[in-house]
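Case study 2.
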Amino acid sequence: MKILVTGANGFVGSALIHQLVEAGHEVTALVRSLERIKEPNKKVNWIEGDLLKPERLPELGLIHKAFYLVHGLKESSSQFEYLESLAAVNFINWVRPSGASIIYLGGLGPDGLDLSPHLRSRHLTGAILGSSQLGVIEFRASVVLGEGSLSFEMLKALCERLPFRPQFELLNRPCQPLALGDLLKYLDGALEQDIKGHEIIEIGGDDVATYGELIDLYAELSGLKRKKIKIPEVETKVLLKVLDYAIPEHSQIGKKLTESLEHPTVVSKKNAQEFFPHIKTQSLRVAMDLARSRSKTHYAPLWEKDFLKIMLSDKLLTQSGLLSPDLLKNLEKVGKLKDILTRDKK
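Prediction:
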């Protein structure tokens, strides 16, 4: 089968391309810059182009299936919702002559306009692709657990860097994580589906958990002790500012994802089993442990970098009420408990 993959340099795109090549498919992969490909697979037809610059997109031949894995999370522009929509329109115009049908990976969450920009954009992109009349499968997924996943790396960084486990309302929202391996099974299974219209399929793993419980599970599996400390309820913009200090590598993307925490991302449409009855998903514990064991990233504890002192110099944080006297007292205690930053030897 002749297959196009956009977003080929991304976490899911890279893993998908490897799987497609191993299965013997002819893969064409779109990237913004060929120079950014560290170790290009020689069996893949790599093409360079930008969906926001349609005049520079190369002409496609016959394509059977086109994966749309493009995401604007890394875009710093306040117009990222508009840019995501524009990219989707340009994509449709580009692939239409090839005869391809589309497989899109979107975001799980309720419908409606009262959504975070991130989720609203994910759903709008799906609607735009679905209106193309090319035949579209729109998968909607929550957190994808796998080494290199942005959601997983944020989870790992927060758990390993902070010497305590924060407690606040947003972390009590439910989600339904999906293992990377199970996501790839769904994407592969979609190749055999002959969809004429626009089919939305919600996918998730075996278990529903809160975001706080995901942090707890990672800590348990990693042998990390983390005392829970209640954080004063503050405006979301204050929590977003904390990400600049806690996870600077992922803060730009993390802020967009954090805004979406207020929405439950749990499967409500039970049609995945109808289309893919053969797919059995992994438990949350197994998926988390597999991602954790394969992840090679390292995040040094922020306490060693005088985290509290830096936060106290930020007026937005000090004037917001976040750093209350009780919180500071607890943080000071936690900072002196050496065993909290050490591995559990049990």
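The longest strand covers residues 101-107.
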